[in-house]
Design goal:
Elements (H helix, E strand, L loop, with lengths): L11 H15 L13 H10 L5 H14 L3 H5 L3 H8 L5 H19 L7 H5 L6 H10 L10 H9 L8 H11 L5 H14 L16
Helix pairs in contact: 5-6
Length: 212
């Protein structure tokens, strides 16, 4: 932990509160970077595409993707080769295409075409793990949760808020430190902070407002 602002703050809870207050002030509008047009199914698909890919690229690729397959029913019947060609720029396109078609079919067959809204139902969908499930619950269904993306894990570990550079540990330990109702917003804000200042591998510590 090398951030001057909190280097002498011993308790994790106190460090978390200081950092959370900073993020609120610096980024008052905590919005999801994925442009999903308030459509739960779009967010689900885009979240799957975002694995090892930038949100900017996902937003770009999603435009032709949803023009070709606008609904969950269309996606469930998608020709795999066509889907793969569209999402190829996102990387891991074969695996992602397989899980997107699989999750779409499961939603149609098991949930009447509606994205399920419980954690257990979400993680039962192909390609959906804890990170995506928590994103969906927080952004769509009003159940704010920690979304341990790469920015969140890296920065909170650097600040000494979590004990291990690991998504499961990050989700578990931050859930104890950040107020339940603020967890989703906290994660959106930390992504913005990570992109603007606390970059990997070269953070802009000299100009970072958290160090002032």
């Amino acid at each position: 932990m090398n951030c001057p602002r909190i280097k002498d703050v011993k308790k994790k809870k106190d460090r978390a509160e200081i950092f959370s207050a900073f993020l609120k002030k610096e980024y008052p509008d905590a919005l999801c970077a994925l442009e999903y047009e308030e459509d739960p199914f779009r967010l689900l698909v885009m979240a799957r595409l975002s694995a090892q890919c930038t949100d900017k690229r996902v937003n770009e690729v999603s435009k032709p993707l949803f023009e070709a397959f606008p609904t969950v029913y269309d996606m469930a019947k998608a020709e795999r080769s066509k889907l793969e060609n569209i999402i190829r720029p996102c990387g891991l396109f074969r695996t992602k295409a397989e899980s997107i078609i699989g999750m779409s079919q499961a939603i149609v067959e098991n949930h009447g075409g509606e994205v399920p809204h419980t954690y257990d139902e979400l993680i039962a969908l192909p390609g959906v793990g804890m990170k995506i499930a928590n994103l969906m619950l927080g952004d769509v269904f009003g159940d704010s949760r920690i979304v341990p993306d790469t920015h969140c894990i890296r920065i909170t570990y650097k600040l000494g808020l979590i004990s291990k550079n690991d998504p499961v540990v990050c989700e578990r330990e931050l859930s104890r430190l950040i107020k339940k109702e603020e967890q989703s917003d906290f994660c959106h804000r930390i992504v913005l902070f990570g992109r603007e200042y606390c970059k990997a591998p070269t953070p802009l510590c000299d100009t970072c407002p958290f160090n002032k």
